[in-house]
């Protein structure tokens, strides 16, 4: 029993750590995207280009997908399935909606941060949700 409790705690802390990673990476890459789009980083010096950002962003997204798969397999308990899936659906819908544009009126960097952080969290949550949904369907099928 002690190992199960410690495993659940470890999974809980891993989930929190992954969300923090998504937020920190989102802030960094959002600021980088903002600076590229506002010509604060010239494309001909320092090795910063849009293709460099896109390549590095792809690696961060891949890491978030891998972390999401890990969470999908180890972290979510049966009682957390429905709330997690609903939250993931809300995140995916929010990431598809263009509701971040008004943030420009507050600060021009805020939409970059919001979109990038949300895309990393969705890249992390979506694979976990798929794994959890498949596990839930299998569990339902086994009961019948």
Can you tell me about this structure?
With 144 residues, the chain is mostly helical. The protein has one domain. 77% of the residues lie in helices and 0% in strands. The chain has four helices and no strands. Helix 1 runs antiparallel to helix 2 (50-74), helix 1 (2-37) runs antiparallel to helix 4 (110-143) and helix 2 packs parallel to helix 4 (110-143). The two termini are 29 Å apart. The model is unreliable at 40-48 (pLDDT under 50).
Number of helical stretches of at least 4 residues: 4
Low-confidence stretches: 40-48
What's the domain count? 1
Q: Termini distance?
A: 29 Å
Mean pLDDT: 81
Strand and helix order: HHHH
How much of the sequence is in beta strands? under 5%
Please state the CA-atom Rg, rounded to the nearest Å. 18 Å
Give the overall shape.
Answer: elongated
Derived from helix and strand composition plus strand pairing, the structural class reads mainly alpha
Helix content: over 70%
Please describe the biggest sheet, giving its number of strands, its sense, and whether it closes into a barrel. none
Count the beta strands. Answer: 0
